[in-house]
Amino acid sequence: MDNKYFKYSVEDFTRDLNFINWVNNGINQKEWEDFVRENPNLSKDINTARKIVYSLRYNAKDLQEEDGVEVYKKIEAFFTLYHKSKRTIRIRKIMQYAAIFVLVLSIGAAIPIVYFTRNSDKFSEIVSKPSNIKEAKLILSSGEEILLNKKQSDLQFNAAGNQIKIDSDSIINYDKKPDQNAMAQVIIPYGKRSSMLLSDGTKVWLNAGSKLVFPQKFSGKNRKVFLNGEAFFDVFKNNDVPFIVSTGNMNVTVQGTEFNIRNIDSDNEMEVVLVEGAVSLKDNSMLHVLGNEIRLLPNQKAVLNKTENKTTIESNVEVAYYISWKEGLLEFNSESILNVFKRLSQFYNVSFETESGVELNRKISGKLDLKESLEDVMKVVSDAAPISFRIEQDKVLVISKINNMPMP
């Protein structure tokens, strides 16, 4: 190893191209390991420098030479923040260091306050995406499966139930009308959504991670569908034939109305929010066949605790807060960071891992545009919450923002 390394400070290591290549790419691994082992007095500085270099592993853009000064300003800001002193560097040296950091930096990365280490022993998975459902699909009563390739699919069934329009560019016709009570189903995995027009004229918006089972053609004394997940219903009014949504825990009965149901298997609560009209709720378990019905009025929310089998009613709720997801927005008001992560996991099909220091119960408020990239959305979250993040493929690593970095 070059003798210069014996005199290196933390800053010097982070600016050294050979050191960066070792940390990021494992180049000359054995030489560096031997050097660290043989120089225990430098191990503290080297470990700190490694953490800094690793924290700068963003996807770099192609930077122009004139951008070098701006890159270096950010690097200098990093050390100024933690050393509380300003260094005077000649422009030639600035450009030299900037050229090195072009390999690992992108302009605009908020690096001065991020001290991000990836130690698998310190991270725990708090939100995981489902692995058993990969593709959005429509399964017809005949058993035929049709893949829904778009992120936001649109399905329209005609009144006879023998014609389906998919995404405005594909029409499927059937010579034979479906059998009475023949059931179809739409399965929407995490990361996708769907809107539907059922054969009776009812409109349904299915959120990510949801499944709806329904007749291709409604007949009989009621119009019954089965939901697992979250959906918004705009029910076509028919006073003679009630529309029933069964969730496994409860039947929601309506004639013509707008409401949102959220019933996620992993959640202990089921939620019904009424926008317009009226709905009645009744426990559909065998033990409560004769139970009393609960009626909701507009702007009321019913919450069923599945464990205690107890339903509470809340009035004068802000309806837009619960239904904005169908417009590609996510609003949260004094919501825990954990719940926000759960919703983002659902929308973007990613898992979240956090360090133990992250305050998952901390309440935050805001609005997210889910049409934006995950990175842009997480930047908004990190502005509202004291967290820093890094995205690795389909995983989001989260740590707490810190004001002070441990230095030797």
Describe the structure.
By secondary structure, this protein is of the alpha+beta class. It has three domains: 99 residues, no CATH class; 85 residues, Phage tail protein beta-alpha-beta fold; 184 residues, Jelly Rolls (Sandwich). It is 23% helix and 32% strand. A hairpin with a 5-residue loop joins β2 and β3. α5 crosses α6. The chain is elongated and about 90 Å long.
Any guess at the CATH architecture of the largest domain? Sandwich
State the name of the first-level CATH class of the largest domain.
Mainly Beta
Proportion of residues in helical segments: 10-25%
- Mean model confidence by pLDDT: 77
Write the layout of secondary structure elements.
Layout: H1 10-14, H2 17-25, H3 29-38, H4 43-55, H5 68-83, H6 91-101, E1 123-127, E2 137-139, E3 145-147, E4 152-157, E5 163-166, E6 170-173, E7 183-188, E8 193-197, E9 203-206, E10 210-215, E11 223-234, E12 243-246, E13 250-254, E14 258-263, E15 269-276, E16 279-283, E17 294-296, E18 301-305, E19 310-314, H7 319-323, E20 329-336, H8 337-348, E21 351-355, E22 363-369, H9 374-384, E23 387-392, E24 395-400
Parallel strand pairs: 4-8, 11-12, 21-24
Antiparallel strand pairs: 1-21, 2-3, 2-7, 4-5, 5-6, 7-10, 8-9, 9-11, 10-11, 11-14, 12-13, 13-16, 14-15, 15-18, 16-17, 18-19, 20-22, 23-24
Summarize the structure.
With 408 residues, the chain is an alpha+beta fold.
Keywords:
single chain; 408 residues; alpha+beta; Phage tail protein beta-alpha-beta fold; Jelly Rolls; 18-stranded mixed beta sheet; four-stranded mixed beta sheet; 9 helices; elongated; disordered C terminus
